[in-house]
Amino acid sequence: MLHARLREIRKSKGLTLQDVADRVKPDGTTAQTIGRLETGVRTLTIDWIDKIAGALDVEPADLFAFPHAGDILIDGAVTASGSVLDQEEGLLPLRPTMKNPVAVRFLENMGQYHSGDVVVCEQLTQETLHRAAGCDCLVKDETGRRHFGKLFPTREADTIMLAPITASGSIKASLKVDMVAPAIALMRSLSH
């Protein structure tokens, strides 16, 4: 988690909460606020990420870097119909703690997603599939095709229903899937 990474960097530099608070530009802050950011009690906005990165003398992207994991390959592009094209879309320098991340980029605006957004999903195991109910998910059906939509369980234990994100998509009922990965993080470029 990001807040754990803040604490890790601060401690590796031998800084106290007050040291970091005093380094925040332009006016500083309190040690209590830094502590709340580190524990996740206070939300880390983009503004705070920039301030904390400056105070810790690191790049903002370093706050997302976990040494034990590598960059995530963006290996698909979501179309307006919810189909996912198999194409490399680059690397995401985010190194999350999840075991099986997969990322896709949206080609067009679709509901809450904007063109260019990257969504990081976590592949679930058979035992954890129940966590995907009602979530926006990347799924791979038994034929190998990938789709993105809102997942709903069905009465049959081995199938799901996938509702489209937009009106141009179609409901996929009784879909047998080989992989289910609910959306965990949304990465949006400020330039879009």
From TrEMBL:
Question: From which domain of life does this come?
Answer: Bacteria
According to the UniProt entry, its GO molecular function terms are: DNA binding
Q: Which Pfam family, any one of them, does this sequence belong to? A: HTH_3
Per the database record, which ranges form the HTH cro/C1-type domain?
Answer: 6-63
InterPro entries, per this entry? Cro/C1-type_HTH, Lambda_DNA-bd_dom_sf
Q: What is the official name of this protein in its record?
A: HTH cro/C1-type domain-containing protein
Q: Give the originating organism.
A: Iodidimonas gelatinilytica
